[in-house]
Fold these 2 entries.
Entry 1:
Amino acid sequence: MALAMDCATLNGFLDRVFPQISGQIRVESVDAQVLIARLLVDEQHLRPGGTVSGPAMFALADVTIYLAILSRIGEVALAVTTNASIDFMRKPEAGRDLLAECRILKLGRVLAVGDVLIRSDGMDQPVARCSMTYSIPPGAKG
């Protein structure tokens, strides 16, 4: 399956359409099965106790699934989250970036379902798992 958007195109899209997260989340790699994104963890992502906040992990998961969908259907800014579930499994390390690995489980005409595992960079065990469903606007998928 040919990708509609590669790493450079996805990162350019993020910078252009979502400047509020520019420089925070970057696509590391993408192919027909997996998209990996990195949260460049800094002070704004931490909470008391020296760990990455839940909202920062949720944002990483949400953006990662969104980008994985766009990598397949092209630039569709109005694809939106319709359902989300996240499990926080262990404390991420504050001094490490987070890596999110996304697999799209279903890509239909109007709905897409994806799963993300988030790990601290260099660690094997996931710190969080997220499942999301996205709504794709009519006529957007080409």
Entry 2:
Amino acid sequence: MAITWGIVGGFSITIDYRRLQLSQPTEGYHRLWAHRSFSACIGIRIALAVIGAAQNQWPILWWVKHHRAHHKYTDTDQDPYNATRGLLFSHIGWLLGLNESAWGPVDLSDLKKDPVVVWQDRLYWPILITVGILLPGAVAHYGWNDWKGGILFAGITRIIITQHITFLINSVAHAPWAGTQPYSTSTTARNIPLLAILTLGEANHNFHHAFPTDYRNGVNWNEPDFSRWIIWLWGRLGWVNNLKIASPLEIEQARFKRKKESTRRKSDSDEHIRALPKLPQMSWQDFRKRCDDFDELTCINGVVYDVADFKDDHPGGRDLIQQSIGKDATELYYGNHLHSPQADNILKSLQVSLLENSHH
């Protein structure tokens, strides 16, 4: 029972982190609520919220807060489990010396509008005790007269083991000596197939950091991801929808650039600008006027981007994109943290014009 309940609980954490808006149903802790990778019906959301609480990994709001900060500020001092501080810190030290004030700010407005998230946050401890500890004890008691074993093994021990398996994603999946980086070297995240099996797909971590809004954690046979197939099945049954995936072209571009060890940082952006003579010119005055007329434009390194359709997909939350509208966001983009090559590719697809007389 401990193993079965542990696997079910593991799925609730890996699947449980995506997008929450009142205008549409939402998803789970990691892929549903944290990364907005798909949308789910109210029944799936409630089930994931209840089973997720039973894993003693804190409410959805708190879990998503530190996870979004991890993706937004990866490998910096504002990353809650900054891997550059060592394996022990990224595994559990960040919790033993918990310092939320050091975390970088993230946008949680979407979660605070979701009634399931708010309900779970209010009743987190009663759900944890009832479903996580007392329920296994009751099943073992009425099933084979062993309530003590049910509470000890399927309750407390299962919770501890599930927690540490989850923490391995923060530690081992970011360790410099572990796994591979087939998609990006811009972060410490790595793919570890054996650990991916243990974590139901979460340790295909290099792919995940390169394509954080993809509901899958890998596309190849050697990138095992059991959670992906559960979400896919739910989609076929009509319980979830809006499953997001990175385009095959984007994935191949990331692989190609990784093979060439290309970083494509600021200097690469300059080269790209010179290679796009067909982009129309726009003056700064026209840029500002269009923004005043409610066009959602931003400027980075002399290039104007239309971010209207990307705001809700931004891994760091829509608030950061909203702050950049009508402004030169060059320092925000390059100074905030090292964006992945995938982020650069997405940015390239949003280009609409060049600023006239740009000195970039």
